[in-house]
Design goal:
This protein has helices at about 15-30, 45-50, 55-65, 90-100, 120-125, 165-180, 195-210, 220-230, 245-255, 295-305, 310-325, 350-360; strands at about 1-10, 35-40, 70-75, 105-110, 130-135, 145-150, 155-160, 185-190, 215-220, 240, 265-270, 275-280, 330, 345. It has about 350 residues and is of the alpha/beta class. The chain has a domain at about 1-105 and about 260-360: Isopropylmalate Dehydrogenase. The two termini are about 20 Å apart. It binds 3-isopropylmalic acid and magnesium ion.
Length: about 350
């Protein structure tokens, strides 16, 4: 079996984390008799520099033609002063909406070896396994009207928080189906006490739930959810929420696991075609220094095998290899504990090489 994979390394640490992840992808594919055909395209700041456009037409076309897409990160100080429709982030948002990647899976799991790396007490996060399912192509990120204009001699900013019923139905269905593969509990997060759009969100989620009576459904306001995530994170199984709340809560969830450098993500359309990317950003402060943690991108490759390539065996191999390198004591600086002399501090490349070795030893 051969699969077309498009790589979008992007900006900052993006290329540094995508390269080792690609090597791991190839090695895992080989073990399972799969062939991956690589192509590369420009997205984000590098695309702006080369073409003036954060999402060149050629990139969108290549993305449409690919079976799966592996992305690094976009953005950085070089492009911060551009108008909002020309910023690197616009490239990623255009890709998400252009490919209708509405279901964003952001699992947060604590590796036993990293329980002490979290800013929370180890007992609160040991064994944590939650899934944040974020709606990714609607809500306030895409609502119209939007923009800043001058009204009565002062600047006024407008963004619009909108969800149509069908957008809520399809993400709710994905949430309930995902919960069935886990612990059968969904917590829908909204702000239904204040925002009408999320009042509708709650109503529609309740309607969709009628088809999934075996799954337990609860509701939580987003402010409470943020608090509960740091108070008692293990109470959750699947959290389903809108685009902006999901953006915020998934960063909180990332820190529970010890580092933003550990969190993978998958953004899927209705056919399970997907864009895979680490949840962390382009980290311009450490770019080019071989310091970035590639594990979130490598774990995103595991998700790619599982969700888009139908190769659960390859995915499990990669997950096991990641757990093994952590158990062996390899740490990039974001997850290192200086007081633990059994750990070995490594850079991006060495961490990638350690995963490859662990994979070969499985
Ligand atoms: C994320 C990021 C993006 C988002 C940015 C880079 C546009 O924060 O994927 O969480 O806000 O969705
Ligand atoms: Mg974010």
């Amino acid at each position: 079996m051969s699969h077309k994979i498009l790589l979008l390394p992007g900006d900052g640490i993006g290329p540094e984390v995508v390269e080792p992840a690609w090597l791991v992808a190839q090695a895992a594919a080989k073990r399972h008799n799969l062939t991956l055909e690589r192509s590369d395209a420009l997205l984000g700041g590098v695309a702006i520099d080369a073409t003036g456009d954060p999402l060149p037409a050629a990139t969108l076309q290549a993305a449409k033609a690919a079976d799966a897409i592996l992305m690094g990160a976009v953005g950085g100080p070089n492009w911060d002063d551009l108008p909002s429709d020309k910023r690197p982030e616009k490239g990623l948002l255009g890709l998400r909406s252009g490919l209708e990647l509405f279901a964003n899976f952001r699992p947060a799991q604590t590796f036993p070896a990293l329980a002490a790396a979290s800013s929370l007490k180890p007992e609160l996060v040991a064994g944590l396994d939650i899934l944040i399912l974020r709606e990714l192509t609607g809500g306030i990120y895409f609502g119209e009207p939007r923009g800043v204009s001058v009204v009565n001699n002062e600047r006024v900013g407008v963004n619009t928080y909108t969800y149509s019923e069908h957008e809520i139905v399809r993400i709710a269905e994905v949430a309930f189906a995902a919960a069935r593969q886990r612990n059968s509990r969904v917590c829908s997060v909204d702000k239904a006490n204040v925002l009408e759009t999320t009042r509708l969100w709650r109503e529609v989620v309740i309607e969709v739930h009628k088809d999934y009576p075996d799954v337990e459904l609860s509701h939580m306001y987003v402010d409470n959810a943020a608090m509960q995530l740091v108070r008692e994170p293990k109470q959750f199984d699947v959290i389903v929420t809108g685009n902006m709340f999901g953006d915020i809560l998934s960063d909180v969830a990332a820190m529970l696991t010890g580092s933003l450098g550990m969190l993978p993500s998958a953004s899927l359309d209705s056919q399970n075609k997907g864009l895979y990317e680490p949840v962390h950003g382009s980290a311009p402060d450490i770019a080019g220094q071989d310091k970035a943690n590639p594990l979130a991108t490598i774990a995103s490759v595991a998700m790619m095998f599982r969700y888009s390539l139908g190769a659960a065996g390859a995915a499990t191999d990669i997950d096991n290899a990641i757990a093994q390198v952590l158990a062996d004591g390899y740490r990039t600086s974001d997850i290192a504990d200086a007081s633990d002399s059994t750990q070995q501090l490594v850079g991006t490349k060495a961490m990638g090489a350690a995963v490859l070795e662990a994979l070969a030893r499985l």
